Amino acid sequence: MNKKQLIFLILVFLLALTLRLYKINSPLADWHSWRQADTASISRNFIKEGFSPLYPKFDSFYALNSYGDKNVNRYFFAEFPLYNIMAHPLYLFFGVKESLLRLLSAFFSSASAIALFFLVKKYSSRLTAYLSALFWAIIPFNVYYGRVTMADPLHVFLSILALLLTTVWLEKKTLSSLIPAGITLALAILTKPYGIVLGLPIVVLLLTSWGKELKKNWFWVLVFGFLSLTPYLLWKWHIDHYPEGQFGTVWLFNSTNIRFTGAFFRWIIFERINKLILGGGGFVLFFIGLVCPKSKKEWLFYLSWLTALAIFITVIASGNVTHDYYQLPLVPILAILAAKGVEFTLKIGQGLLRKTFNFGMVISLTAMMLAFGWFEIRGFYQINNPAIVEAGQFVDQNLPQEARVIAPYNWDPAFLYQTNRWGWPEITESIEEMIKKGATHYVSVNYDEKTKEVMKQYSIVEENERFVVVELTEKF
After folding, report:
1. Which of these three, 354, 380, 406, is where a domain ends?
2. How far is CA 91 from CA 83, 150, 166, 203, in A?
3. Range of the domain at 372
4. Same structural domain, 104 and 31
5. DSSP readout, 12-70?
6. What's the whole-number mean pLDDT along residues 159-167?
7. CA torsion, points 248, 249, 251, 252, in degrees to nearest 10?
8. Which conformational region is residue 424 in: left (phi greater than 0), alpha (psi within -120 to 50 degrees), or beta?
9. Across all residues in the chain, what is the average pLDDT?
10. In 10 A of CB 312, how many CB atoms?
11. Which is nearest to 80 in space by CA: 208, 245, 210, 200?
C-alpha cells in the first residue's frame, strides 16, 4: 500500500466516523428504537447481572413468540451477542452509556469502508475502489444505520471482511489464510444468520479462482465450510432449548403474501433501494455500473453477491418490506456498482465538451443521491416521543431498583428500556394477575381508558401532562 492509498483510507475513515457521530448522544427513542433498545438492554444487563454471553437477557418478562409471558428468565436469543460482548469492556470502564454502543457501531461501519476498498481493489480498478469506499462512507441511509445500537453494522463489516479474506485464501492457498477467512464468515453468520447467503459469491469465487484445481482442494473447502457453519449450528442447538427467548420468525418469510406482488417490488426497489438508500441519483449510477463492461471474474463476483442478497430479500419477503434496516447488507454492493457507474461514465465519450458533460452528470447524480437520501432519512434521528424519555428518567431516579414496571407502549420495549427496570412492554392480562407475577408500578405516557382505570384503583406516585406513574401495591 502506497502513501497515497494510506492517506485516502485515513481520511475516508475519519469522514465516515465524523458523519456517524451526528447525534451520537441521542437516547434510544429514535427510528427503530424498539430493536435498538432490545440490543442495548443486553449490554446493560451484562453489567447489572453479570457477564453471561451464552444466556443474554433483555428487560422484558414477556416471551418473544407464542409462549405468552412465560419468559421468567428474560432470555433474548435473536442472534449471538457478539456485538454486546465487544461492548462489554466499554461499559465496564466507562459506565453504561448508550453512546458507547453507538460509537462501537460507528467504528465498525467506518472500518467497513477500508475493508471494502481492499476487496474492490482485488477485482476492479483503484478508482472504483476509492469511489466505493467514499460512497459507503457518505450514503445517508448508511450513515444513520452506521451508528445504531444494533448488531447490523458489525455484521456488514464482518461480511465484507469475510469476502476479502476468502479472496486472500484463494490466492495464497494456505492454512494460515483459510482459518481467518472461515472464522470471520462464521462470525458474520452468528451475528445475522442470513449471512449464509454469502455462500453463493464464495462458491463463485472458488469456481473462478481454482477451476479444475477445485477437485484437488476439496478437503480444504470442507474445512472452510466446517469452520464457517459449525459455530452457528452449535449456537442454534443451544438456543433451541429456550424457545421462549426467540422471536417467532415464520411471519418474516411471506406472512402477508406480498412476495412477487407489485407492492413487493415497489417497496424494495423503488421506495428502499431507489429513494431511501440511493436517493434517486445513486440509483442511476448503480444501473450504469450494473450493465457496464467488466472482466468475467469481476462480473461474476459482483453479480453473485447481488443475487445472493436478492435471494435473501425474496425469501424473507415480509421481513424486508416491514424493516428497512434489513437492506443494510445491500449497501456495499450498491456502493460498488454505483462506483463502477461513475468510472464508466467518466471514461466514455471523446472530446472536452463530452467529458465535461459526463463529469457534470456524475457530480449532479452524486449530489442528488446525498441530498434526496438525507431528505428521506433525516426524520430517523428525531426522538419519536420525548415523553418516554422523561418518564423513564423519573422512574429510574425515584423508584427502587427492585421495582417491576409495566410500561405499555404498543409492545415497543423502548419505553421499558428508558425506565432501567425489568417488566413488561404491554398489559398482557388483568392488572391483578400481573401484580401476582411481580408488577409493582405502572407508567404510561398515554392517558387512555386503561390508564385512567389503573389511576382510579391504585395510588398515583406522579402525574403530569406528560406521563403518570402509579404504584400497584395498594388498591382503593
Report:
1. 380
2. 12, 16, 33, 40
3. 3-380
4. yes
5. HHHHHHHHHTTTTT--S-STTHHHHHHHHHHHHHHHHH---TTS-B-SB-S-SSTTTT-
6. 98
7. 150
8. beta
9. 95
10. 23
11. 245
b/e sequence 199-226, b meaning 16+ C-beta within 10 Å? bbbbebbbebbbeeeeeebeebbeebee
Whether 50 and 147 share a structural domain? yes
Residue 469 has φ and ψ, to the nearest 5°, of -120, 125
Quick one: 374 and 391 in the same domain?
no
**Alpha carbon distance 223, 218 (integer Å):** 9
Claim to verify: residue 248 and residue 393 sit in the same structural domain: no
Strand 404-406, strand 422-424: pairing: parallel
Q: Sheet harboring 468-475: ordered strands across?
A: 422-424, 404-406, 441-444, 468-475, 458-463
Of 333, 350, 380, which residue is a domain's last?
A: 380
* Residue 396, CA distances (Å) to 59, 108, 204, 266, 273 in order: 14, 31, 53, 44, 41
Longest dimension (CA), the chain: 87
Chain segment 130-162, per-residue pLDDT in tens: 999 999 999 999 999 999 999 999 999 999 999
Residues 102 and 169 in one domain: yes
Where on the phi/psi map is residue 274: left (φ > 0), alpha (ψ -120 to 50), or beta?
alpha
Written as nine digits, the cell of 51 is: 457477564
Q: Are residues 174 and 227 in the same domain?
A: yes
Average pLDDT of the residues in 398-415:
95
Q: Taking the mean position of all CA atoms in its chain, how far away is CA 427? A: 29
Q: Which three cell numbers stand for residue 273?
A: 433501494
Q: In this predicted model, what pLDDT tens digit does every residue of 411-456 receive, in sequence order?
A: 899 999 999 999 999 998 899 999 999 999 999 999 999 999 999 9
At residue 380's C-alpha, the angle toward residues 377 and 381, to 5°, is 115
Are 364 and 394 within one domain? no
* Distance between CA atoms of residues 195 and 166, nearest Å: 14
Here the cell at position 436 is 401476582
Considering the domain architecture, whether residues 216 and 245 belong to the same structural domain is answered as: yes
**What is the tally of helices (H) and strands (E) in the chain?**
21, 5
Rounded to the nearest 10 degrees, the angle between the axes of helix 82-94 and helix 175-191 is 80
Domain count, the chain: 2
pLDDT at 463 over 60: yes
User: 424 and 388 in contact (C-beta within 8 Å)?
Assistant: no
pLDDT for res 428: 82
* Alpha-carbon span 304 to 122, nearest angstrom: 16
Query: CA-CA distances (angstroms) from residue 281 to 70, 125, 286, 325, 367?
Result: 49, 22, 9, 20, 7
Q: Which of 38, 30, 39 is nearest to 144 (CA)?
A: 30
